[in-house]
Amino acid sequence: MYMKIKIALFLLSISLWTKAQESSFTLKQAIDLALENHYKSKNADLEVLRAKKKVWETTAIGLPQISANADYQNRIKLPFDFGDLSQIPPGQEFVLLFAAPHNTNANLNFSQLLFDGTYIVGLQAAKTYKGLADVEKNRSRSEVVKEVSNAYFLVLVAKENLDLLDKSYGTLSQNLTETQALLKEGFVEETDVDQLNLLLSDIETKKIESKNQYDIALKMLQLSMGLDVDKSVVLLDDLNSVLNLINLAQLEQSTFNALNNPDFKVLQVQEELLKLDVRRYKMERLPSLGAFYQMSAQAYQVKYDFYRNADWLSSQTAGIQLKLPVFSSGMQGAKIAQAQIQLDKLRNSKSFIEKSLEIQFNNTKNTLQTKQQIFMNAQKNMVLAEKINNKTILKNKEGVASSFDILQSKNQLTEAQAKYIQSLFELLNTKAELDQIQYKEAE
């Protein structure tokens, strides 16, 4: 009795451990996890962080700048022979500046930008660059959503295909057993059994291929979600719940909005950056003004003694610096013209891409409607083919239909199932493509 309890507890612990190793996800949960773990999302987050640092880098240009520097020189050979330096008359010590071989300089520098038109534009550009990183992140997220959705759909489709093959295999196995019994009684020929064995072997091969496709699809989904591929994953959404997401009535009333497209958003921010680029070159024609302060100290020694007896000479300087562009032989105007040309080129591209995206949206919307109709027909045809196959098997039992009739009906069913699976995948793939064109970031 005690051993039975121990075994039961052990099996219970194994069961709990196995469940702990499993993770279950709906489509939305899989997408949310991928948006956190996918390398594209992580890189996009890092790019946003880099853009924030870039904003501060640009801002710091207009803030106080302090630097310090020091240098030491050992003048191994002096240009003149100064004789006995101990005989220098009072008041003539400045000669040491030329005669001392050991010279040390130390400087402390302070500068402050007071006005620069390009700095003002640079601040605006840095903030706009941060906005570019944000929309690039949004675009990366849309790509991740499409990738994970397709991977999720592919797993469901592969599982559906595997289930259909399992069902066919079970039905045919039962039919083979019954036909073998009829062969023993002499009611059918051996050829009938051989043909059924051939069909069964073919389905078994397809099952192996389908199982491999399912395993690969599941690992690709786990990889997209950032999970360990050795971890067990269960999909909570089935095909019916995913297909219910396709609302043709709502889709029919939907219209294209370029502002929802990630690629178009990127173009908008790039246009703003090029506008600021034109403005920056124009601002270079304005004067710039800055203030500075410098404190210096110099030590001159005839014999170096680590500055124990060094006399330091110090000085301080303060002032302002004004830079005023006067004449550049048309160079500045050429820079402005080039920047304006770049802006005009982008605007042309933006206009073309906006129209192209609208055409792509309408085409994809129509394709989705067509794919759904094809899927519904394929689903109906598969049901009919299965019905015909079942009736043919029944007739074979009654001696009305031959094994050739079973082979023909089974091939029809296999073809109908293949078209059903293909239409199902194309329908879900088209839906993911349409979602990306009109991607909206979740609140």
The portion of residues forming beta strands comes to 5-15%
Secondary-structure element pattern, one letter each: HEHHEHEHHEHHHEEHH
Give the mean pLDDT.
Answer: 86
How many E strands?
Answer: 6
Helix content: 55-70%
Distance between the termini: 58 Å
Any low-confidence stretches, pLDDT <50, length ≥5?
A: 5-20
Q: Which outline best applies? A: elongated
Q: What is the CATH topology descriptor of the largest domain?
A: Outer membrane efflux proteins (OEP)
Number of separate domains? 2
Q: Reading side by side through the largest sheet, how are the strands ordered?
A: 2-3-5-6
CATH superfamily of the largest domain: Outer membrane efflux proteins (OEP)
The CATH level-2 architecture of the largest domain is identified as: Up-down Bundle
**CATH class label of the largest domain:** Mainly Alpha
Description of the molecule:
This protein is 67% helix and 13% strand. It has 443 residues and is of the alpha+beta class. The protein folds into 2 domains: 21-62 and 116-286 and 332-437, Outer membrane efflux proteins (OEP) (Up-down Bundle); 67-115 and 291-324, no CATH class. The strands form 2 sheets. A 4-stranded antiparallel sheet has the order 2-3-5-6, with no helix packed on it. α2 (27-37) packs across α5, α3 packs antiparallel against α5 (117-185) and α6 (190-225) packs parallel to α11 (403-437). The protein is elongated. The protein starts with a helix and ends in a 6-residue tail after the last helix. 20% of the residues are buried.
